[in-house]
Specification:
Two copies of one chain form a homodimer. Helix content of chain A is 41%, strand content 14%. Chain A is α/β, with parallel strands linked by helices. The first copy, chain A, has two domains: 34-120, Leucine Dehydrogenase, chain A, domain 1 (Rossmann fold, 3-Layer(aba) Sandwich); 145-263, Rossmann fold (3-Layer(aba) Sandwich), CATH 3.40.50.720. In chain A, helix 1 (12-34) runs parallel beside helix 10 (263-282), helix 6 packs across helix 7 and helix 6 (145-156) packs across helix 10. Chain A starts with 7 loop residues before the first strand and ends in a 6-residue tail after the last helix. The A-B interface holds A 112, 129-130, 132-134, 136-137, 139, 162-165, 171, 173, 177, 181, 184, 187, 189-194, 196-198, 203 and B 112, 129-130, 132-134, 136-137, 139, 162-165, 171, 173, 177, 181, 184, 187, 189-194, 196-198, 203.
Chain lengths: 288, 288
């Protein structure tokens, strides 16, 4: 007989829905008050099917929340200079309040240069170095959407972070690194593990909070979860499989995010929320 | 009978001397070739005796290395706006290649705003958010001097970092946070401990590499050092006492930095080296 689940589920889908509802209300009020609708520009290079799907979904969610979207589709052969110019034009355009550059952009493009062309005040996806530094030092600015969504989930479930050991598995520029910095800013003891870590299992076993962001299906085994730990699965692998062995982990964790319905919906909710926030700061009503 | 020391000393003073010699040669060659001497601007607010001493020492080391220094002394009552304006003027001044704002600047000043007024290409002390992001993502830019000095020491002693567990004790914006990011960039598994960490001892005991940057005398006890670990003491407390109990730790470590003569001299060497590098990039010879 296998052990019964002990973990409470962290309902990202439900929390995201409430955030998006509030965001939609705010977008509507802003549009009424200023005559300008918040606008997110999406930029897609090439026609990678997953990227096409992601962008389409994000645009649909914008529309539903009363956020206008403007889509820039660029051919796969776009150069770095052309992409930077396109993003730069959006950064200059007063009608655009937020910019989302769908990534990956293709190996021939300098992705960092393209990200840096996003004006920090329009970086609602939190991908610029300015946003990373803001997250790292607790300065004003936008957060990377998945890390931001994770923090909102942890807060919603009253997870005490101060002095707890948070282990981040993965160190990408838009997920692992920034979520570690946000956790550190909340007084957690933070460990970054990654592909070169010698004994990930031994580290994860010590974690009070695990953030799995490695992109390998069921990489975190149930037996590696410390009893009572909080498990956040930011992985999303083919077949709706997370980075955590959910069924096994939920018999040991105190709180756990499901996949799907955990971190994923929170990511989009933060994107929409930050877009409306950028618009609220960026729209100057007529006569002002 | 107490155990014999096992650790080899990391001779920061000696390595720093060699770096400064090369830097001085490079400064002289640059001055000969361009007719312009590399110049570091130092900015000091108020008359805190320790800060006055630090700035004086840094200027003397500049002069000895053939780097001109220009000193801006501002009264303790300087406002944030006044300091930002002073730093901004130096950022604009083509005769100035590097800028060092001595900190702390006093509680009434927004230190971050003052740091951000330093043009990234003159941020030879590595204090801007742009420099932090560059360190975090392995992008071109200057490093914070003490973290940069620590990495050079580790490299000089051929410390293998990939997959090793590096524990950083302390999370300041110019030491703990950036050195952790540099170690992560070199494929170490990195843990940040700090004042809110529940059991620092338990974490430090697992470290293959310890970086002590907490500012508390002998905070790391010898018994907490894993046998064979590499111990870097970036602490500097009154009476030339480090953050590590040196005599006890050297009986267990494989490599250890003394205090003084370890990390301290490396910090200044990196400052001088980066100033000449900034000058080499920033000086445009007549007619070019």
């Amino acid at each position: 007989m296998s052990p019964a689940p002990t973990a409470r589920l962290m309902d990202g889908a439900g929390l995201a829905r409430r955030i998006v509802e509030r965001t939609a209300e705010r977008a509507a009020a802003l549009t009424r008050r200023t005559g300008t609708q918040p606008c997110l520009a999406t930029v897609l290079v090439g026609d990678d099917p997953a990227s096409v799907t992601y962008v389409r979904m994000k645009r649909a969610r914008c529309e539903k929340a009363g956020i206008r979207s403007r889509h820039i589709a660029l051919p796969a052969a776009t150069t770095t200079a052309e992409l930077v110019a396109a993003v730069d034009a959006l950064s200059q355009d007063p009608q655009v309040h937020g910019i989302l550059l769908q990534h990956p952009v293709g190996p021939h493009i300098d992705e960092r240069a393209a990200f840096e062309a996003i004006a920090p005040e329009k970086d609602v996806d939190g991908v610029t170095t300015a946003s990373f530094a803001a997250m790292s030092f607790g300065l004003p600015g936008f957060v990377s959407c998945t890390p931001g969504g994770i923090m909102r989930l942890l807060d919603h479930y009253d997870v005490d972070l101060a002095g707890r050991h948070a282990v981040v598995v993965g160190r990408s520029a838009i997920l692992g690194r920034p979520v570690g910095m946000l956790l550190l800013g909340r007084d957690a003891t933070v460990t970054y593990c990654h592909s070169r870590t010698r004994d990930v299992t031994a580290v994860v076993r010590q974690a009070d909070v695990v953030v799995a962001a490695v992109g390998r299906p069921r990489f975190i085994r149930g037996e590696d979860v410390k009893p009572g730990a909080v498990v956040v699965d930011a992985g999303y692998n083919p077949g709706n499989i997370g980075d955590v062995d959910f069924e096994a982990a939920r018999t040991r964790a105190s709180l756990i995010t499901p996949v799907p319905g955990g971190v994923g919906p929170m990511t989009i909710a933060v994107l929409l929320d930050q877009t409306v926030e950028a618009a609220a700061r960026g729209i100057h009503p007529p006569g002002v």
